[in-house]
Design brief:
Blueprint (H helix, E strand, L loop, with lengths): L2 H5 L3 H20 L9 H12 L1 H17 L8 H25 L5 H31 L3 H43 L1
Length: about 180
């Protein structure tokens, strides 16, 4: 029986979602000074992996709404905030899907590849959504939008590379450890 099935709509599920929100915001703030290196995507993904698709989507969107909406270095507004929330909700969704795809085994190439691939997809889609949201919101022409998107490529590459490392080195081994602790409770 999966953790999602066992928890249903219980207070324990809400408590765990709240814990992920708190950890996501704290880790986001901890690395805020390092451009394009973050752990928020990983927290959103893990929430979906452990708590299920629906809880992952809600948790990911809420983490980003609070983190980006009230960021001490400047809050996101409008379409950019919506794009950020959608990107992190997607990370939670991908976590839930990855849990189903990998099955019960937390070893081997299928598990590792699923985790890293899902992290890459979440990062690429997040960057595409957010990098497109700004020029659209600002009313840029098509040529201005294309220049803006091209200027964002090096930053997106750093973001992708750092998240490939995060998902391969941290997320992959962390999930089975969290599962053992959380399924026991």
């Amino acid at each position: 029986m999966s953790l999602e099935t066992r928890l249903g709509r219980s207070p324990l599920l809400l408590t765990r979602m709240a814990a992920f929100v708190a950890v996501g915001i704290a880790l986001g703030l901890a690395l805020a000074a390092i451009p394009n290196v973050e752990l928020v995507t990983a927290v959103c993904f893990i929430s979906g992996f452990l708590l299920g698709v629906r809880a992952g989507v809600v948790t990911g969107g809420l983490i980003e709404a609070l983190f980006a909406g009230f960021h001490p270095l400047g809050s996101s507004l409008g379409l950019v905030l919506i794009a950020q929330m959608a990107g992190m909700a997607l990370a939670g969704l991908l976590g839930g899907v990855a849990a189903r795809v990998t099955g019960p085994s937390r070893r081997g190439i299928r598990y590792a590849a699923s985790i890293v691939l899902a992290g890459a997809v979440a990062t690429i889609v997040f960057d595409a959504l957010t990098n497109l949201a700004f020029p659209v919101m600002a009313g840029f022409s098509l040529s201005q939008t294309l220049v803006t998107l091209a200027a964002g490529v090096p930053f997106a590459a750093i973001h992708l590379f750092s998240n490939l490392l995060v998902f391969g080195v941290l997320v992959r081994p962390l999930i089975p450890r969290l599962e053992r602790v959380w399924l026991a409770s």
